[in-house]
């Protein structure tokens, strides 16, 4: 039988792997974006946020006396890289990446809400406030993606109609 603290630590390891997966999704996208400077800038900002989120998770894992799950980190990083590669052949790569990023941000939001609940139940209010920082950054990114999908789609359509490179 697992204690609430065990569940919380497992959640921390999962979040750590999830953020590594996020980096493996965003970094290849940033390397390929050419025609969408607003998307590029926001992804670069979120990569920096994600790196800080990983540092926060590392500190929480250290405080809990827990190791990172190298296997989870590697497996999710690989799957994220493969997901990012999957859209590179699509003529509407930028639009598909926008959909996928929005979905992944909402996955992260749900994961952090669950993890905050576990931290609170485990009596770890310090962890809850740290995790809330990560959640707030994910909420902001999801909101940005949501409010920019129309602009990205319209720019993609305009570039395609003019015969310019539109996919990335």
Percent of sequence in beta strands: under 5%
Spatial gap, N to C terminus? 49 Å
Helix and strand sequence: HHHHH
Instruction: Determine the CATH superfamily.
Output: Ferritin, core subunit, four-helix bundle
CATH domain class:
Mainly Alpha
CATH topology (fold) name: Ferritin
What's the β-strand tally?
0
By CATH, the architecture is named: Up-down Bundle
Q: What general form does the structure show?
A: elongated
Number of domains: 1
Helical stretch tally: 5
Percent helix, as a range, is over 70%
How would you characterize this protein structure?
This protein has 168 residues and is an all-alpha fold. The protein has helices at residues 4-32, 37-63, 70-86, 93-121, 125-162. The chain has one domain: Ferritin, core subunit, four-helix bundle (Ferritin), CATH 1.20.1260. 83% of the residues lie in helices and 0% in strands. The mean pLDDT is 88.
Which helices and strands occur, and which strands form pairs?
Layout: H1 4-32, H2 37-63, H3 70-86, H4 93-121, H5 125-162
Helix pairs in contact: 1-2, 1-3, 1-4, 2-5, 4-5
Summary keywords:
single chain, 168 residues, mainly alpha, Ferritin, 5 helices
Give a short overview:
The protein is 83% helix and 0% strand. With 168 residues, the protein is mostly helical. It has one domain: Ferritin, core subunit, four-helix bundle (Ferritin, Up-down Bundle).
